[in-house]
């Protein structure tokens, strides 16, 4: 799991400002590529719109369409994200790389079919025009592939190519939007098409990287569904974390700050823009977890479990455990401290910086931004601790933490809609606080008696769970076999027909000669 961190750590060892910026650029794109691209394109759209004096209603509609599509694709893919990542890790550990690419297309295919049906139904009743609906659906399907591809791209060490795909997507979207607006094309459709084209470039580039790195095979594309049954808590953890992260936006759209932009498209521009900007402040923790926490913690973690597996002495195991927990506590402390310093610096400078940007910030938006910066900082710390719980296979603890995060955020945000709008954002802040506090206490209690957790709580005999997702995989496998058989039969029949026709032609030719 920490392999990507070890590779990135080499980049951070190089001296010089440009080397440091390049390293953070690689790490940021790899850890949060599509989401970072989405936020940048959102603000790029606002800036380009202000340059070409696009009307406020068109800008609000465009931001709503992109935001809806972003969040819908995130929620859909979040359920399979962690089980697919676990499947990928297991296949790499077993050196069974031939199973990886089929699982990518299998998981992508399922999400594309389910997502296309659900999002098409929404778009039919959303009030969008035919062209707008087609572009939104196109963008939605692209994002599904991009989100899923990021789980697999972490195994690729060609970070320069991944960064190039990100930069190319931004440049293509920017140039396309300027060209189309200069040609006086409809602004909403033009900018939406530019975003679609940008994500399309990233999709094609990343898929080509996957095909270049992993061997192509048609082996069992539905095998990963067994991992969904086996690690269902992981799937629910990913889903609940995503809901907790973005539910406050959707609830606010339905509250006093919300406006009806068009049809079913609602938004709260005075809240959405600060929220998207505040989200960027947690990038430092995301990168730090990969290049610092995992890299420094993983060797001690591996040493401890190696002693348990290979018959180490009690004394050696105890020493390794103490060393591992000391490193873990130190790295988590540094991570929280770095995020605190970044958040404090951003809050101190935000008024000067944001007022200089053409985003129309007012006093209320500055207040939302400050509150949400603190909320996202607490979420980042809580999410880091939750990932460590997953390291120790405390799936129930991680699931409880994520469910608490999602539930409390939803409840507190709904309650907050009945109070003054100046308090908006505190619902998410309170939910993130509970998330961080519970995850921290859970990790402390879990590691207090770690030998029992590792040895005593584990099943004596390996258990294989066969549930609905495994049954779905078997059903899809049988269906694929039937299709292949029917195609083979039809191909064989066509070959026989061609042979019969050729034979008939030969006979006719002989008769003519005679």
Automatic annotation (TrEMBL):
<feature type="transmembrane region" description="Helical">
    <location>
        <begin position="231"/>
        <end position="253"/>
    </location>
</feature>
<feature type="transmembrane region" description="Helical">
    <location>
        <begin position="425"/>
        <end position="444"/>
    </location>
</feature>
<feature type="transmembrane region" description="Helical">
    <location>
        <begin position="273"/>
        <end position="293"/>
    </location>
</feature>
<keyword id="KW-1133">Transmembrane helix</keyword>
<dbReference type="Pfam" id="PF16933">
    <property type="entry name" value="PelG"/>
</dbReference>
<feature type="transmembrane region" description="Helical">
    <location>
        <begin position="399"/>
        <end position="419"/>
    </location>
</feature>
<keyword id="KW-0812">Transmembrane</keyword>
<feature type="transmembrane region" description="Helical">
    <location>
        <begin position="367"/>
        <end position="392"/>
    </location>
</feature>
<feature type="transmembrane region" description="Helical">
    <location>
        <begin position="60"/>
        <end position="82"/>
    </location>
</feature>
<keyword id="KW-0472">Membrane</keyword>
<feature type="transmembrane region" description="Helical">
    <location>
        <begin position="162"/>
        <end position="184"/>
    </location>
</feature>
<dbReference type="InterPro" id="IPR031617">
    <property type="entry name" value="PelG"/>
</dbReference>
<feature type="transmembrane region" description="Helical">
    <location>
        <begin position="190"/>
        <end position="210"/>
    </location>
</feature>
<protein>
    <submittedName>
        <fullName>Exopolysaccharide Pel transporter PelG</fullName>
    </submittedName>
</protein>
<feature type="transmembrane region" description="Helical">
    <location>
        <begin position="103"/>
        <end position="125"/>
    </location>
</feature>
<feature type="transmembrane region" description="Helical">
    <location>
        <begin position="131"/>
        <end position="150"/>
    </location>
</feature>
<feature type="transmembrane region" description="Helical">
    <location>
        <begin position="21"/>
        <end position="48"/>
    </location>
</feature>
């Amino acid at each position: 799991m920490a392999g990507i961190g070890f590779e990135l750590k080499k980049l951070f060892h190089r001296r010089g400002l440009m080397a440091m910026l390049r390293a953070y650029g690689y790490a940021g794109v790899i850890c949060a590529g599509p989401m970072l691209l989405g936020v940048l394109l959102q603000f790029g759209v606002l800036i380009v719109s202000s340059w070409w004096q696009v009307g406020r209603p068109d800008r609000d509609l465009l931001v709503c369409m992109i935001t809806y599509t972003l969040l819908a694709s995130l929620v859909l893919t979040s359920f399979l994200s962690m089980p697919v990542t676990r499947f990928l890790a297991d296949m790499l550990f077993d050196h069974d790389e031939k199973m990886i690419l089929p699982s990518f297309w299998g998981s992508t295919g399922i999400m594309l079919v389910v997502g296309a049906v659900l999002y098409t139904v929404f778009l039919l009743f959303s009030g969008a025009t035919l062209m707008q609906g087609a572009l939104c659906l196109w963008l939605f399907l692209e994002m599904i592939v991009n989100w899923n591809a990021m789980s697999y791209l972490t195994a690729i060490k060609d970070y320069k190519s991944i960064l190039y795909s990100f930069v190319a997507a931004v440049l293509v979207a920017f140039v396309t939007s300027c060209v189309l607006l200069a040609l006086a094309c409809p602004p909403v459709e033009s900018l939406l098409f530019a975003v679609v084209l940008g994500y399309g470039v990233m999709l094609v580039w990343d898929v080509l990287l996957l095909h270049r790195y992993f061997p192509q095979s048609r082996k069992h594309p539905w095998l990963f569904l067994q991992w969904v049954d086996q690690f269902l808590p992981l799937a629910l953890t990913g889903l609940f974390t995503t809901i907790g992260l973005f539910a406050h936006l959707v609830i606010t759209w339905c509250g006093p700050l919300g406006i009806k932009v068009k049809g079913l498209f609602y938004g709260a521009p005075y809240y959405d823009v600060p929220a998207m900007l505040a989200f960027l402040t947690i990038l430092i923790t995301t990168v730090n977890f990969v290049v610092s926490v995992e890299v420094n913690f993983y060797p001690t973690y591996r040493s401890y479990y190696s002693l348990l597996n290979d018959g180490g002495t009690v004394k050696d195991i105890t020493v390794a455990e103490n060393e591992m927990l000391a490193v873990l506590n130190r790295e988590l402390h540094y991570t929280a401290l770095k995020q605190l310093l970044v958040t404090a610096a951003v809050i101190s400078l935000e008024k000067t910086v944001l007022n200089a940007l053409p985003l129309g910030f007012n006093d209320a938006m500055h207040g939302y931004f400050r509150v949400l910066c603190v909320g996202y900082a607490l979420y980042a710390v809580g999410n880091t601790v939750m990932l460590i719980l997953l390291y120790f296979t405390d799936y129930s603890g991680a699931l409880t933490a994520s469910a608490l995060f999602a539930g409390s955020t939803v409840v507190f945000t709904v309650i907050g809609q009945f109070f003054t709008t100046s308090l908006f954002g505190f619902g998410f802040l309170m939910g993130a606080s509970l998330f961080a506090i519970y995850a921290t206490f859970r990790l402390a209690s879990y590691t207090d008696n770690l030998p029992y957790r590792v040895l005593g709580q584990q099943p004596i005999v390996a258990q294989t769970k066969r549930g609905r997702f495994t049954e779905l995989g078997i059903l899809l496998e049988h269906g694929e076999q039937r299709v292949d058989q029917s195609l083979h039969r039809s191909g064989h029949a066509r070959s026989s027909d061609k042979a019969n026709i050729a034979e008939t032609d030969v006979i006719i030719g002989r008769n003519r000669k005679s």
